[in-house]
Write a structure and sequence with these properties.
This protein is an alpha+beta fold. 52% of the residues lie in helices and 19% in strands. It is built from eleven helices and nine strands. The protein has a five-stranded antiparallel sheet with strand order 1-8-3-6-9, covered by helices on one side. The chain has a four-stranded antiparallel sheet with strand order 2-7-4-5, with no helix packed on it. Helix 9 crosses helix 10. The longest helix has 33 residues, at 127-159. The chain is globular, with a radius of gyration of 21 Å. The chain starts with a helix and ends with a helix.
């Protein structure tokens, strides 16, 4: 079914240089559209949803829905128009489950790699490069589907255990605040060892590893999309200082935060 969903056809591809504003503040399209910031941020409204998008976010707009947008600063962006080739009933059912509006990628390192190739091919209109662009569009959608399925699987497993479900919700809502295993265990009315075993049985990882994953996703985003120093990033991610963040980051990814920033920052 994933193979059917990935049978897409690229119609338009437009990567801008830096601009101060969009040529059109609103438009409605006959096909699906992706609008993604490269440098800078923009404000958007799609139906009842509105917000701000930056690098690492895409706006996915279905046919016939007005898309409003306004640059908040100097901006470069990617515009893609496409349609799904095989619109049988199963594909239509799957499309109904895909969210409209802003999609934020957690694997910002993977998204950055895809986007670096997007920049490479954006100014080239040779026929065989059109095929490469279509593959890159698939890569973006595939990355979203993989992340979405992973999150759904985690939520489904957690939902089977109400104690773990409550703990997961607490971790997601307070990940960037001071948290301890003892605090989580106390909320569950269990000892630390009992809570850890129960959490790992449901989620496949320990509570600390799960929490670290959430914090590392934010650390990656801040390293790429901000000029904050390591101590400030650490504070925003729930760590006391940059030294400790650096140690955790390198243990998880095999590179230091500074090496990661140098590799992936726009």
């Amino acid at each position: 079914m994933l193979e059917q969903l990935m049978r897409i056809h690229l119609i338009r591809w437009y990567q801008t240089n830096t601009k101060r504003f969009f040529m059109l503040s609103e438009d409605t399209y006959d096909n699906w559209v992706i609008l993604a910031a490269d440098e800078g941020r923009f404000e958007y409204r799609l139906g009842k949803e509105n917000g701000i998008a930056k690098f690492g976010d895409i706006i996915l707009c279905p046919p016939g829905v007005p898309l409003e947008r306004r640059a908040l600063e100097q901006l470069s962006f990617l515009f893609i128009e496409f349609h799904w080739g095989d619109m049988n009933e199963e594909v239509q059912r799957l499309l109904a489950t895909i969210p409209r509006g802003k999609i934020s990628f957690h694997r910002i390192d993977r998204y950055s790699t895809i986007y670096s190739l997007i920049r490479e091919f954006s100014d080239i209109d040779m026929p065989h490069h059109w095929i490469h662009k279509q593959h890159l569009l698939r890569d973006i959608l595939y990355l979203y589907i993989i992340e979405h399925q992973h999150q759904e699987s985690a939520n489904l497993v957690a939902a089977k255990d109400p104690i773990v479900r409550k703990a997961v919700s607490h971790l997601q809502n307070h990940a960037f605040e001071p948290l301890s295993l003892q605090e989580l265990a106390d909320q569950a009315a269990l000892s630390q060892s009992q809570f850890s075993r129960r959490f790992q049985a449901s989620m496949g990882v320990t509570p600390i590893i799960y929490l670290t994953g959430i914090r590392m996703q934010k650390a990656q985003s801040l390293l790429i999309n901000s000029e904050l120093n390591l101590d400030n990033i650490a504070q925003q991610c729930g760590y006391q200082n940059g030294f400790y963040l650096s140690r955790v980051f390198k243990k998880r990814y095999g590179v230091s935060p500074s090496q990661f920033r140098k590799t992936y920052q726009i």
